[in-house]
Amino acid sequence: MEEKIVVTGGKPLQGKIKVSNAKNAVLPILIASLLGDGESKILDVPHLTDVDTTCSVLQHLGQEVARQNGHIMIRTVEPTSFEAPYQYVRRMRASFLLLGPLLARYGRAKIPLPGGCAIGSRPINLHLKGLEALGAKVNLEHGHVEANCRRLKGAQIYLDFPSVGATENLMMAASLAKGQTIIENAAEEPEIVDLANYLNAMGARVKGAGTPIIKIEGVKELLGTTHTPIPDRIEAGSYMVAAAATKSDLTIENVIAEHLKPVISKLKEMGVQVDEHESSLRIRPGEEELKAVDIKTLPYPGFPTDMQAQMMALNCICKGTGVVTETVFENRFMHVDELKRMGAKIKVESRSAIIEGVKNLSGAPVKATDLRAGAALIIAALSTEASTEIGALEHIDRGYDNIVGKLQEVGASIERIG
Ligand code: UD1
Question: Is the shortest distance between the CB of 93 and ligand 1 below 6 Å?
């Protein structure tokens, strides 16, 4: 039988929930360890299938990977292979980040094209354009990207769009290139800053991460180091929205409030009370019924596309009408049909979804169509007394560490069956 999450909601959560460290910081950092000589230790890594996939790819390349008490140790050796198998890249697009480090350190790499995925076509043109500017020869053949180079050379690169993955790939590659690289219109996400901090701890000279202009002075070699990744702002945001949807008084620990500004601001606009503390946030119901808000996803520091589905679920049970506009990915509304199965009133017009709030959603068998859609369905299910069955859990397991256990601890009636 297919595994399912069964939720019977309609009651407030209470207590404290601890957020794990960020998937989107951990994956590039694990891959960046390839750039360094010796051993890297990445501490407090979340238990996620995307992390397992990344470790498997590194092992496939011949690297020594060990896991202990939630930490991951990687000892780099001369790779036995320079090719990432399709079985991994298909499962996790972030495998494409191997291209930069392999090229920079060993001068060659072969990675299958990631292809389409549920939320859009997700091209890699910006990664390739940047690596070519650094001197790589890139060939696209038989569904693979094959790239070769002598030592990469620093260059000035302008990204047409501030792509997170392209910025990371180029930052890693430029760290071992000869001379200076300037990435303009770079992504500014906190995970970029975390990767830059890790690279700098390895001996790289990266400046300006977190701004649109990143300057990298290439060095000859990097050394393994120890690093603790930043907390997961999207996991935190998901629990904040779950608290709002269940009218709960919930404390969320291991957060950097600064990273959650756009989410905090929208929740406050809806009427949720958010108290910011040193490394935690307390979410409390406001005096009045929550009101629907308009949301437009944008690159950081704008509203994160990875929180769009969860906020849409919340909008579904707010008073009034809210318009959610997705500008980062072209097809990220797969959760709309699932939410409609639960009684939501949503109309999609091009890149916007118009949501007319209803008093209550009803339970229904639904399916997680992608990772964040899965979280949105759990939130919707927690908001209603009816029982909801959520399938396709492989998406949720990619990015939420022990979501069922964490929600049970704060009193949710949620279990995993099958
Ligand atoms: C990362 C995150 C993902 C998040 C996304 C946007 C990881 C592992 N994943 O994905 O959770 O939703 O950032 O915040 O960190 N694009 C191009 N050409 C390229 C690269 C991207 O056109 O070469 C387009 C994409 O199709 C998409 C947009 O740029 O429409 C944003 O993509 P990007 O920022 O690269 O996202 P990812 O790094 O794949």
Answer: yes
pLDDT in tens, the chain (418 residues): 899 999 999 999 999 999 999 999 999 999 999 999 999 999 999 999 999 999 999 999 999 999 999 999 999 999 999 999 998 998 888 999 999 999 999 999 999 987 655 555 568 999 999 999 999 999 988 889 999 999 999 999 999 999 999 999 999 999 999 999 999 999 999 999 999 999 999 999 999 999 999 999 999 999 999 999 999 999 999 999 999 999 999 999 999 999 999 999 999 999 999 999 999 999 999 999 999 999 999 999 999 999 999 999 999 999 999 999 999 998 899 999 999 999 999 999 999 999 999 999 998 999 999 999 999 999 999 999 999 999 999 999 999 999 999 999 999 999 999 9
pTM here is 0.97
Residue nearest to atom 3 of ligand 1 (CA): 306
* Ligand 1 atom closest to 328 (CA): 30
Q: Which atom of ligand 1 is nearest to the CA of 304?
A: 14
CB atoms within 10 A of CB 355: 30
Give the distance from CA 115 to its chain's centroid.
Answer: 18
Nearest-angstrom CA–CA distance, 329 and 299? 11
Using CA atoms, how far apart are residues 327 and 299, in angstroms rounded to an integer?
9
Contacting residues for 145 by C-beta, under 8 A, at least 6 apart:
99, 109, 110, 111, 112, 113, 124, 128, 138, 139
Binding-site residues for UDP-N-acetyl-alpha-D-glucosamine, please? 93, 306, 328
Look up tokens 């996790």; give the residue: 92
Q: Is the CB of 198 under 6 A from ligand 1?
A: no
Domains and CATH numbers, the chain: 4-20+231-417 (3.65.10.10), 23-227 (3.65.10.10)
Ligand 1 centroid to Cα of residue 375, in Å, is 19
Residues annotated as catalytic (active site), given as ranges:
117
Q: Taking the CB of residue 76, how many other CB atoms lie within 10 A of it? A: 23
